[in-house]
Amino acid sequence: MAQAQLLAGRVAIVTGGGGEIGSAISRRFAEEGAVVVVADISLEKAEKIAAEIRSSGGQSLALALDVSSPDQCAKAVTETVDRFGELTTLANVAAAATPLGNVEELSLENWRGAFDINLTGMFLMCKYAVPQMRKAGGGAIVNIASSHGHIGMPRRPAYCASKGAVLQLTKCLAIDYGKDNIRANSISPGAIDTLRAALQRFKSREEANAAKGPAYLVGRTGRTDEIAAGATFLASDESSFMTGTDLLLDGGYLAFKGTTTNPV
Ligand SMILES: NC(=O)c1ccc[n+]([C@@H]2O[C@H](COP(=O)([O-])OP(=O)(O)OC[C@H]3O[C@@H](n4cnc5c(N)ncnc54)[C@H](O)[C@@H]3O)[C@@H](O)[C@H]2O)c1
C-alpha cells in the first residue's frame, strides 16, 4: 500500500532553505507533499534547491530573504500567500556563523549579528506568518535551536545564548497561539555533519566527524536527513499533541556529556 504523504496540502516557508539542514528539510517537506518556499539570504542557493524540487515533480519557489530585515520577512510571507493561496508551515532554520570568542573577544557587532539572525529573524518571521496561519485555520512552526541552547560551550556565548532563547520563544509562541490551532516546537540538533559546523573548529568535515563522533552515544555525528525527519514530524499531524516543546536530536550527547570538560 502506498504511504500517505505527511504534508499533503501544506504550504511551507523554510528560512535558510539553501543551507545544509535547510535544504534537507525543504527536500523532505516537498517529498511529503508540501509546496515549499525556499528562502535564503543567498538566492543562488535557494534557487538550486527549488529547481531540484521542481525537477522531482514538486512545487517550489526560491526567494531572497534576509531574516534580520522586517520588510523582507513581511514580503516573503506576502509573496508566498499571493503565489500559493495560504501559509500553513514555517521552518525557521537560518542562522549566522558566529565567530568563536568569549565576551571580551567578541565585538558588539558579532553579538548583535548572532541575535539578529538566530533569534530576531525567527520573531520577525513568526510575526508575519502567524496571521496567515490563523487565516488558514492553523499551522505549525518548527524552530531550529541547538543542543548548545541547552548547555554552554567555551567561547560561544552569542550562539549559545541566542539558541537558548529560541527554546523560550518557542514555548511562548505555543502558549499564545494554541487557541488558533497553531503549534510551535523546536529541534535541538547535536553536531550534524555539515561544513559550517566542521569549519568552526576543524580543517575539514572528515576531521570534525572523527573528533566529534566518539562523543555521541550513537558513535557518530548526525545527518541532515535525521533533522529533516524530525522537522517533518513536527510540521505534520503525526505530532498533533505536541506543542511548546523541544525535540532533542543529539545522538545522546546531552544524556552523557552535558558538562564535559573536554568539549568537541
Ligand atoms: N550543523 C550543525 O551541527 C548544527 C547543530 C545544531 C544546530 N544547527 C542549526 O541548524 C541550522 C542550519 O545550520 P546548517 O549547519 O545547515 O548551516 P548552513 O550554513 O549550511 O545553513 C544556514 C543557511 O542560512 C542562510 N542564512 C544566513 N544568514 C541568513 C539570513 N540573514 N537570512 C536568511 N538566511 C540566512 C545561509 O545562507 C545558509 O544557507 C542553524 O540554525 C544552526 O544553528 C546546526
Descriptive overview:
With 264 residues, the chain is of the alpha/beta class. It has a single domain (11-194, 223-252), classed as 3-Layer(aba) Sandwich (Rossmann fold), CATH 3.40.50. The protein contains 9 helices and 7 strands; from the N terminus they run E-H-E-H-E-H-E-H-E-H-E-H-H-H-E-H. It has helices spanning 20-31, 43-55, 70-84, 108-135, 157-177, 195-201, 205-212, 224-235, 253-257; strands spanning 11-15, 35-40, 60-64, 89-92, 139-144, 182-189, 246-249. A 7-stranded parallel β-sheet has the order 3-2-1-4-5-6-7, sandwiched between helices. Helix 5 links the parallel strand 5 and strand 6 (182-189). Helix 1 packs across helix 8 and helix 6 (195-201) packs across helix 7. The mean pLDDT is 95. Bound molecules: nicotinamide-adenine-dinucleotide (NAD). The site of nicotinamide-adenine-dinucleotide has 28 residues, from helix 1 and helix 6. Residues 15-16, 18-22, 40-42, 45, 65-68, 93-96, 117, 144, 146, 189, 191-192, 194, 196-197 line the site of nicotinamide-adenine-dinucleotide.
